[in-house]
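Worked example

This section walks through a single chain of length 709. The input is the sequence exactly as stored; nothing has been trimmed or padded.
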Amino acid sequence: AEWIAACARDLAAHRGRSIVLAGDEQSPVVHALAHALNQALGNVGKTVNYVEPVEEFAVDQIEDLRALVRDIDAGLVEMLVIVGGNPVYNAPADLRFDIDRLSKVALRIHLSLYEDETSELCQWHIPETHYLESWGDARAFDGTATIIQPLIAPLYNGKSVHEFLAAFTDRPERSSYDIVRDHWRTQNIGGAGSDFEANWRRAVHNGVVPNTARASKTVALNANFAANIPPTTPLSGNALEIVFRPDPTIYDGRFANNGWLQELPKPLTKLTWDNALLISPATAHRLGIGVASDEEQKNRNDYTLKGKEGYTEVVEVRYKGRAVRAPAWIMPGQPDDVVTLHLGYGRWRAGRVAEQVASPATPEEQSANFQNAYAIRTSDAFWADGGVEVVKTGATYKLASTQIHFNMEDREIVREGTLEEYKQDPTLRPHRDEQKQPPDPAGENRQPLEGETLYDGFDYSENESRSSRGYKWGMVIDLSTCVGCSACVVACQSENNIPVVGKEQVARSRHMHWLRIDAYFKGLKENPEGVYFMPIPCMHCENAPCEPVCPVHATVHSAEGLNDMVYNRCIGTRYCSNNCPYKVRRFNFLLYQDWNTPSLKMLRNPEVSIRSRGVMEKCTYCVQRIEAAKIESEKEGRKVRDGEILTACQAVCPTEAIVFGDLNDWNSRVAQRAREPRTYGLLADLNTRPRTTYLASVRNPNPELESRA
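Given that input, the structure is written out below as tokens.
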């Protein structure tokens, strides 16, 4: 009640400048209430705009699916054509498309990018072209149309949706290009009587078809809408609520065979290769659910590295007469009496990675729909419902989480503060009680002075003898805007040919990602105030602790400030890794790369060497991109311009939290950010002088709520 009152006052104070959003998974009632609030706040026409839906034939898709099931059961369907999708795996549990139901249809045809669970039960599987291999068109939310142009020719002679459906017409041999082009010929691109060919080429080139956005609509709130809102039925007794959500990495299961995404740590749990039932500490305590004891872990037959590999309890989730088993994961910030189960796991025909490497469950667990949320997800409770029972099974299951890998403890890591604190002190340095803990000029609290070092300094001015053009590369990461999505981690993996190592090796702290996203919770685990995300690449230290300990000079300082790795010198002593306080170096313990599969050769970046086992590797600031830009600039007799080089992590960051450039260029974006008061170096008290620095996180909570937190 206090939160609602404070929020209402905040919204009322910002009429016409606020917005109320309802999540995609919320019910129609919640969306109606959000629209009503925006109307009452005067936001319509200012922060909220209404247009006609882009869906041409808006229908209740769940009801359509129910009608199809009824027709199949009644024997009214002779041929079933499934375009994309995988209903055998992910249809609602009460509308299951299993072999008993599909056998009632004489002819079943499936167009799909992969041969999956649905293809297995169809007589015909038509290979679909990837969206990067085919012509097409699409609309944005406001109705703006775009022409999809392929990047490559189809690798496996697949068929696009356009070509597949054209087979059912009197003109079956048309290509997707002809079909899309013929359609837009009838739409008068550029207006009636204009040159279609010129307008078509312009639309393909620009990516946007002009004048296709839907006009804004004027809508009014139905005065009686509140009377149509059904009453809410509270949960009874000890019943729990279950929430279904797409998995943060493999989404709804369509990416289950993607090793990059399986091994990508999930933003909050840092789990890899697995799904788990998220449960709050208080609810777990009430149900008696917790991590297996040390004694139970000792009794396991397989090797356990304490603190790295963890066995958690397997629970059974019972809902409407159905059940699914999953390991329980106690999650700080999870609401009490609510459990969350992500979609996408428990697949049985998804490819080698998904079937053999991910989630190697026992036959018992497989028979109990292990980790498969679709086994209990029904058509009338698509995203959430109450009345769920969670029961302990007595079994345990090993999970691989990277949350406690490469710890940097007992130091200032994340610097953060509120907007009011930032106004008082833009540096946002941690506040210190001077009377109780005075800074010690000779102790650990003292920051190193400029130039105070035993290392020889580096000259980054232009010097022909050192083949230096005067560059001093650096990076700044804004913690205020990082949302922990991990797009940068996957981009780095793709750019630098980083191998997938598998669940067992991840559990042993041997994952190979050159860039990791650390998650830090603030406050009590039962009710944390928030979570902070911190990307950690190599810092490219000015006083790099890794460099003097390498016996073969495999890690060296470049003339432009990069901390380079010379792979053919490295003999695998790992001294550099032991000496790195940031724990950002990775070692190839095994031969992880598949060098023989032909399609994987096209996957790899030819500008980055493939590393074998026994070699240390780490972030290079995408040196291949730096060198490519330098070559082009030298052809034109100039220096590299600011913004001309985008590292892989910077290029994909949706919030532009990462900025890279030349610190010697006073006007460059990275130099400007590095001069901001809230810039700080990670573990700067060690005098490593990191070239990668951070902008302290600034948040703007409601003062009423912040004072009570």
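What to look for: The first helix runs from residue 2 to 12.
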